[in-house]
Predict the 3D structure of the following.
Amino acid sequence: MSNWLWQNASDLGRGIGAGQIDPVDLAEAYLEAASAHEHGPRIYARLTPERARAEAMAARDRAKNGVRRGLLDGVPLSWKDLFDTAGVVTEAGSMLLEGRVPDTDADVLQRATRAGLVCLGKTHMSELAFSGLGLNPAYGGNTDPLPATPPNVNDRDCVPGGSSSGAAASVAYGLASAGIGSDTGGSVRVPAAWNDLVGLKTTHGRLSLHGVVPLAESFDTVGPLCRTVEDCAELLAVMEGSKPADLRGASLQGARFLVLEPYSGDVRKAPGAAFSAAVDRLAQAGAKIETGTVAGIAEAMDLSPVLFATEGYGTWRDVIEAAPDKMYARILERFRGGADFSAPDFVAAWRKLRALRRVWAAETAGYDAVLLPSVPNLPPHIERLMTDAQYYVTENLLTLRNTRVGNLMNLCGLTLPAGVPSCGLMMLAPPMAEERLLRLGAAAEAALA
């Protein structure tokens, strides 16, 4: 059974379908591993064993009767603690929401449940999802100084990436077959990259946000963190209620990619070298690689403070200001930055961004995808982040720089392990082009293996 913990979700589903894996035994193996793991309490905010066992028993019955609901029927997942779960505390990593118990599941969780997937529990996250680092010292119990900061799989003294920190750690440490997270500025792709996983940022609006605790609803998206591209394709289909992308015969032969400058060159040494080597592998597999920039992308990036912080603070201002002492100072400061801009500033920024999105679409129309290093830096050290305020700000902004391109331009994005620990290759494609992106990703995954 211990081998099951390290299999990808699709292979587990095939094992269930072949009668080689009992869904109840599988759920119990994950629950036991999560309960016994030394970092389990720093990865899971709470397990849902009763729900998991009931769902696994139903999946076992369907498998025995030959009426499975799909490939992933009976496969256990983790869910970031901003997806509502009926009757179970959902606090989005913040003591501001302490004791919040929803009445119903989030839409995407409802769809996953109808497809037969098993909910193992809720994973820790950055406070209200407003950080790319995964550091959360303000949430949880008092016995551990960092009770809600999961460890990075490659260096336990470093942050795992956020805000879907626990989602990534649950998969990387073998405590879930896959994790479901959210991505507003990089919150799926950063922790996926830093923990050597595959992460899919979906197009804004493709998956329902109903029952998802918001950060900035104009940018919030839902996406999976997985071991393989196939798992991402299957989970997108599950959460949408559609058919998964057909990945058979996926090839890079003739695919045309734009390596985006300066975001691909202005990076730290290890991520830069890993990215260059990965791009070379894509070229060897038949891809055509060009390097260039897109007019207006720097201007769009400069709009980030007014767009993200203003909407985030507008969403949470009353709750925050009622009890600001419950928040980590760095996150509080970032939210309050949204008060620096007026309503006309916000409207003007959105008008400008929509125009720049049209420029991006026109200038990248001839490419299958745009390539960047997923994250320009390696995971920062936890202790220094806790003691050096300027370092925290600098590293957080740099961490989210490349992924934010996809959110600003309303793209879908996929990060793949680049072959060096905590380094990823990111592919960005036009909105609603996830199927095409996943085929490219499957071919790239094979080339990088």
User: Anything to note?
Assistant: The longest strand covers residues 118-123. The chain has a mean pLDDT of 97.
